[in-house]
Amino acid sequence: MEAVAFLCLAAAVLGWGFLWVWDSWERMKGQKPAGLPGDGSRTLLVIAHPDDEAMFFAPTVLGLARLRHRLSLLCFSAGNYYNQGEIRKKELLQSCDVLGIPPSSIMIIDNRDFPDDPGVQWDTDHVASTLLQHIEVNSINLVVTFDAGGVSGHSNHVALYAAVRTLHSEGKLPKGCSVLTLQSVNVLRKYISLLDLPFTLLQTRDVLFVLTSKEVAQAKKAMSCHRSQLLWFRRLYVLFSRYMRINSLHFL
């Protein structure tokens, strides 16, 4: 009898939890996140390597497209760690085409100052000056990049955050230009896919993007363009990572 009562209570709690998550998400879907620039905003996604845009930022790219942002992308390396730079540049263009970013809005920096190498620390001032020039020339309203954890902890990801943080803290960003950073989470949450949504809803965040099933297929298609990178563990990543479905972000 006690077991039956316990199961009933557990079912009730789970049912309540499911309804709470569903209700919270339904209320959020129709709302434009507070603080985000509106329709027609010039938004710049700043990444370190080809495949970052699909592997980590697909929900943000597709979510901003829903809000009719004019998206462009700045990639700070060609991803030449294994001498595949030329291949990876082509793959990036293919992936961005799937995600709706045209070739004319993509810039790939391919020089020795920013090597694809987790053992090399990019110079913060050099990254910052390069980024600022791109922001000013293209009249960018919103910059999106990694947070201090870099999602995977890669030093090149962290270098982008350090640069944009420097520009923000020193007041060098143009007036009206905001910065959003992608929240890093622990390993457990990183690999439980959509099951992480309740934890995400319970935490503070400024912007949340969750993909529909159709958009998830689009994100996976974009990632599949990076054929040179689709080793077995990345295929598992595509299946289980929350970043293929959910992005929570914070304003600086």
UniProtKB/TrEMBL annotation:
InterPro entries (alphabetical)? GlcNAc_PI_deacetylase-related (IPR003737), LmbE-like_dom_sf (IPR024078)
- UniProt topology in membrane: Single-pass membrane protein
Q: What species was this sequence derived from?
A: Panthera leo
Q: Which GO terms describe its molecular function?
A: N-acetylglucosaminylphosphatidylinositol deacetylase activity
Task: For this UniProt record, give its keywords in alphabetical order, as a comma-separated list.
Answer: Endoplasmic reticulum, GPI-anchor biosynthesis, Hydrolase, Membrane, Transmembrane, Transmembrane helix
In short, the EC number is 3.5.1.89
Please explain the role this protein plays, according to its UniProt record: Catalyzes the second step of glycosylphosphatidylinositol (GPI) biosynthesis, which is the de-N-acetylation of N-acetylglucosaminyl-phosphatidylinositol.
Q: Which family does it belong to?
A: Belongs to the PIGL family.
What are the GO BP annotations of this UniProt entry? Answer: GPI anchor biosynthetic process
Q: Where in the cell is it found?
A: Endoplasmic reticulum membrane
Primary localization class, coarse: endoplasmic reticulum
What is the official name of this protein in its record?
Answer: N-acetylglucosaminyl-phosphatidylinositol de-N-acetylase
